[in-house]
Records
---
Amino acid sequence: MRTTTLKNLISENNPYGISGIIIPRIQRAYAQGRSDTHAVKTRERFLSAIQAGLMNNGLTLDFIYGNIQNGQLIPLDGQQRLTTLWLLHWYADKKEDINDKRLARFSYNTRYSARDFLTKLVNYKPTLKKRLSDEIRNEGWFPMDWINDPTVRGMLTMLDEIQERFSDTDDLWNKLDKINFYFRDIEEMKLTDDIYIKMNSRGKPLTDFEHFKAELLKIIRSENNDETAAKRIGLKIDREWTDLLWPYRDKYNLVDDSFLNFFRMVSLILIYKSDQSSSEFNLKDDFSLLDRLYKNQPDNVVFLETAFDCMVNIQSKTQLFTTSTTNPIGDFFSSYLSENHYEPGKVVVPQQISNLDIFKEVLNGAALNRNTPYWLIMLYSFMLYLMKNGSIKEIDFRRRLRVVVNLLKNSRNEVVDNPNGDAGNRMPANLRQVDSIILSGEIADFITIDNDKRQNFNVIQMEEERQKLQFTKEHPEYSDGLFRLEDHYLLQGRTDVVGYKNTHLYQRFIHVFDTCSRDVIDCAMLAISDYSQRLNNWCIQLGSGDQNEIGDKVWYALFHPTGKNPDFDKTKKSLRSLLETNIKIDDKYLQEKINTYLIECKDKKQYDWRYYYIAYPCFRPKRYGKYTMYDDQPYALVALHSEKRESSNAYQCMLKALIENKAVANSVEWYDIRALSYRKGLLTCENSAFVSYSLNDDKERARFNIPQNTEGIDIVDRIQYFKDYRKDNNCWIYY
């Protein structure tokens, strides 16, 4: 189809028989000059496109439809574009002193003020030495009440914007011939004026989505030169895709926001697939996304269309086999995913995924507001499977999806898009790894993008997943048990603390942590061996007796150390030793192991710090399991109350034990977290003694030594020993 220009449309002897253009009463006011956010964006976007077209190879706008009556073109769709083009031509005419009479053939028949304003404007010669709107409003022919007409007001705003943008453009009048559009007479299309009601809702402003749809189809048709695809996708938007989104409509029975949210998520996938970052885009500017990701990029249009069609196919296939479901897509996702506990054939989702209906959370915008990389990878995994249209066996997809989910759960520092951070933007490489996993069932050894090896998911977890994939291929009979273990809330995919080859320990781990007291588990593990993990030079991590969220977090941290923590092997050794028994493990069994250890300590007269931790409950405050402990001062450990640092609620455990066991007076008070007010001084605990300091000058004034062996281990229970001998001056060394 041939294009035309505004000059051609209003020229004498034009091929359409048009002698003028009249914007009818039924049309809404000129909107591109409004001051609201949407109008500002539309104005800037439209003028920027025209400016770029003038400087380059031109610009073809979308269709303008109209009805020709008595030689007058009555635009039914395209009023806004025609008005802006006319204002541009008017400005060029006045700027270059053209005085083209064709400009008088454009008029508004909405209000008298808009009609008369255009008549005056055609014959007006501005100086262009100041802002156009100010110059025009100061003219005697401009009544002040005209400013109340939204069309007049909008035209003045647009003229100011045109003046600012094009004042330095030479030969603007002739260059405007580069801006063209398609024109269709509705009489030729055998349509009636009723089409206008559908196009413009009787004067109501077009929604963002309607503008978006028009721009999308224009890009496909004009920029990508694919009229067939434009027609096909246009029909799908109006039919299949609207039917798809209808169950998710808003309270106004609109699916616009749902469509755009899905479009944004698919666009974000394309951003990562093109090795870019979301920080380079404004995901809320749909028109910018269209321009940067879909214009002259037909493959991306195909991906967008296929993404929508995948969801349509889910809906269609589910409804084909059952008529009872009201949420076929939600049912589809929940057939693969579980919320918080193991279900055969499913995988428990990462904690960042708050709803099993991935599609719904994308449509309502939640997936774009929080934890977006997690939602995106989950959606992308399903899309890859669906796009293959049956070439991936369902049983294989379920296994591969589990691998992706396990990687997500254990790559908190790697599932990121932060170009300025330490990890950088790993999402392009993460998606490439998902491609390998879902499409081939293989975890790639490395990801290469533009000949550059890229880091992606957590390397430790990827290696574990490789080993487990091979193990389940060779021993499918253990798959169900391994998957149950993976989905345990304290492991979340990482099974190294138990060992994927230790099949006999799978259920024992689950049983112990689901039924036994965590405090007893903690003490029993420490009775077996020192399983603590040193976090830095001053802090260690132990378990917690808390049975709720705090405890979950503590044990999860122990089973998922960051980096290659060498102390993790201590935890594994202790836990596996605890589980290695044919006797049913319950609290009674664990308590017997604890009691045996305490008796051994007394029999051997060796009371290391573990003894006190187990024997005195105040050492275990059921908090975050973190303690200040320096390597050379294990007996001076401080129990932290908060998760990351010492606070006023922290306390030195030995001193707390003195108080609770009445080894000091009932009236004793804390001076700080490492000192008690004691006998007009301060009592502290050091590795080999209780020490008294002066309140006046903080100098050591007396020392109560604890009997120890040559290895620096107590040979007495220092709490009981202090209680028994604290009043014996022979036990104190005074200064």
---
Amino acid sequence: MAKLIHKATQFSLQTKVFLTFLALLLFVLGCFIVYVNVIVVRPLKLKTEQDTLVTATKVREQVDLYVEQQNQMSQRILSSKNIFVAMDKSSSAHSNYERLKQIRIIKDIMFQAIGPSMNIKDISIYDNHGVLLTSYLGSGNPPAILNTMMESSQIGRDWTESGFVLLRQDDTISFVRTINDQNGKVYGYLSIQMEQAYIQNLTEGITAGDVYILNTQGEQMTGSEAGVTFANWTKPASDEGLDMDKDDNYITHSTSPSTGWITYIITPKKSVLGSIHSVQTMSILLITALMLVSFVYIFLSTRNLLLPIRKLRGQIWRMNYSNMNLKVDETPKNNDLLLLNEAFQDLMERLQQSIDREKSALHEEVKARNSALQAQIAPHFIHNVLYLISIAAQEGKTKVVSDMCKHLSDSLRYIVSSPYAHVTLAEELQHTRHYLSLVQQKYEEDLEWDICADELANEIRLPRLVIQPFVENCIEHAFANTAPPWHIRITVKQYNGLWALEIKDNGEGFPPDKIQEILTNIQTSGTGMNQTADRATALGNMGMINSVNRLKLMYNNRLFINIFNNHAEEQHGATIQIIGSLTKDFY
């Protein structure tokens, strides 16, 4: 009986494996939930609250900018000394004619300071007794007595007649300041009437919450709903801050240093944290779906994993004395490690075959690019050479025709012979001499060239046809906007185990951005292996870059290319330097 109970309480191997994976899955789930709340949700919440505070600052800055514009407008009006004279004469005028004359002068000053464009309601001028003297437009219906407007506001009653104050009366906000000279003598008052709706429009569209702007006395200057007041309002202790009200609304405030206005933004909590709640909800749904899928996957995986063991156990239980000859499958059905090893060996063999094929394909591609470059050189200039030969023949210049035919024959023989074999720098320079001799027949005395090289050129190995693209670039582009004679100088130098090939012309040089473009193309093109199949290899397009790439293939990046414009005195044009190592190990 005890054996039966012990046997009944034991778990199967499948159950044990399933419970083990399930515990691991629950642990990962707990770590994921902690990660989402600590690493994702909390910083996102702080950032969202900070963005809400920044929004309040932006709203306040919009309003401050508008008020500052009115302040600058008032200063432009008061910057005219004539206004003090006109105000003084108008207050002491003995006749209406003299008073109207001074008022007209004041209006002219206002027009010159304001200009034709306005984003205000009106501008009014009061005398030193607070009596309306004149209005710029006369459409704002300003109060005839300034005190009636000042006494309607708490901040107006506290004004000490210095600086400016902002007062609200119905749908108008007035910018009021004294008109006084440097000695402090008060001549009157200037009032700029602004549309409360215009200021309210400045605060809309920036935030999803309701915006209210109060002055230092708690009077509402503008807001999302006109007339809304804050019950038991007290001035904030800090200039900027974020609080929560009893309805869980976020209240951010920002105090203006210039006007003293306090901008409040009341945003519902769900509007501020809506995206965060969405992240939490999506995370819960995602991890729940992942758990369900994982449960099913673990169950099926453990069952399939242990199926051969259960089959073997069933065969063992079926064996008895009467069927001792029961054949047991000797081939392991679940020897995954052996199968994996065999598959890995097979993968390695196939991978090696793929690498060999890829290396062979790249080698053939490089050979094809070299052949394409060489094959395109002949059509590039042979037509012009034959044309020049025909002209020289018509003119009876047999010596010129003979020389040109010899140069052309030597050039074509050099081009088509052994395209994959490397040549010496001396052979490459000799081909360049043939090419320049042919080109000179076209330009005659306008083109001058010289090639300076010593015996070192016989020791330097190069790919075939790498110098001609640089020389051809000088002829086709460098001298386009330069008066002849044109000069090309090719020099070979040696120092510190390096050789340097320098090609210099006296043309107009490269634009600065073109030099950077060429060097960038050379750097990004690598050795030409990664070039797309449809990239042109013609000399006029990619000849210089292809030449450099072919040199890199030979020198394993032990190569330096420098392109610069000549900046010495009385020197023009550009210089291209190709510097390589003389060490054989680098080839």
